[in-house]
Write a structure and sequence with these properties.
Length: about 300
């Protein structure tokens, strides 16, 4: 594992620049996920604007009375700002609710650690919907445009979790690798030099505070999620040019992303909710999946199932 870029550059390129200690691989992955997410959101918004989802030009999909006050692609800066603020706040609240019993001393609402993905997603969806309402923008069309970018952002973030060894791994997996061609590190992994300094100390280690390795290998769930979400991103990106009714891509996103998260939670370390025997993420996954099914069901039984 590479908790910061210093060790990554030293191992791969033989370069030792002390300043690279200040750039963590997890922090870099978050920054890259934001950049790529916004990039693909803008591309999708421009495509939908050209198809007439937000304007009132002749032969487009929006009545003059429903014309957006501002095109979404022109307001990305404001959308990104309010989404970031609301995503962090709601994501932190979800994290504290989920891990309240196991929090380390000093970890509070105002610390920089611990943000729940579904909480952040909820905060961004609510803030985006409110912004769209104020500016007469069709929120489902915006959510459709954002869905592929959400999956790619999540993929990059999870990849950062894996490379840094931030503790977002699975349960202990001592089972033998059943597939001869599958690398052992893809089946189970012990995360040497992990970011959270968990496990036993590595002898003769010169990695500063990152000289720990898990005593027992675990499922590399963050890597699994990165791979799956990248494939799901390709699926939604392939659908981007289709003129489905607003909300169809959102419904697909809610179903496939929720199914992925629900299943991965079965081998992932997370506290259970009381006697329900499910995690908070699984409960939210069920709610979002049902929401996705309802959205697609409503679109299916509407008069025009496919826009032309």
């Amino acid at each position: 594992m590479y908790p910061d870029l210093y060790y990554l550059f030293r191992e791969l390129l033989g370069i030792e620049w002390p300043l690279l200690h200040h750039i963590t691989t997890f922090g870099l992955s978050i920054a890259l996920s934001f950049v790529f997410g916004m990039y693909y959101l803008r591309k999708n918004l421009l495509l939908k604007e050209s198809l007439g989802y937000f304007s009132s030009r002749k032969d487009t999909l929006v009545d003059r009375q429903k014309q957006a006050k501002v095109l979404p692609s022109k307001a990305l800066g404001m959308i990104a700002l309010i989404n970031t603020i609301c995503g962090i706040i709601i994501g932190k609240i979800f994290y504290l609710l989920e891990n309240g019993q196991d929090l380390q001393p000093g970890l509070t609402m105002f610390s920089f650690s611990g943000i729940n993905y579904y909480g952040a997603l909820t905060g961004m969806l609510l803030s985006s919907a409110f912004f769209c309402y104020l500016n007469n923008i069709r929120p489902l069309a915006v959510f459709d445009a954002a869905a592929p970018g959400f999956l790619l952002s999540y993929c990059i973030g999870r990849l950062g979790c894996h490379i840094s060894g931030d503790g977002d791994w699975g349960l202990v997996n001592n089972l033998p690798n059943p597939i001869s061609w599958l690398p052992d590190w893809l089946w189970s992994y012990n995360y040497p030099h992990n970011l959270i300094r968990q496990g036993s100390i590595i002898k003769y280690c010169d990695w500063g505070n990152y000289c720990y390795v898990l005593s027992n290998p675990v499922w590399p769930t963050s890597l699994y999620e990165a791979i799956i979400c990248f494939l799901l991103f390709l699926l939604l990106w392939r659908l981007r040019g289709k003129t489905y009714q607003p909300g169809f891509i959102t419904g697909i996103y809610l179903i496939v992303s929720s199914l992925e998260r629900f299943l991965i939670e079965e081998i992932r370390i997370n506290p259970m909710i009381g006697e329900l025997d499910i995690t908070q993420a699984q409960l939210v996954s069920i709610i979002l999946a049902i929401t996705g099914v309802v959205i697609i069901g409503l679109l299916r039984f509407s008069k025009n199932r496919r826009l032309t």
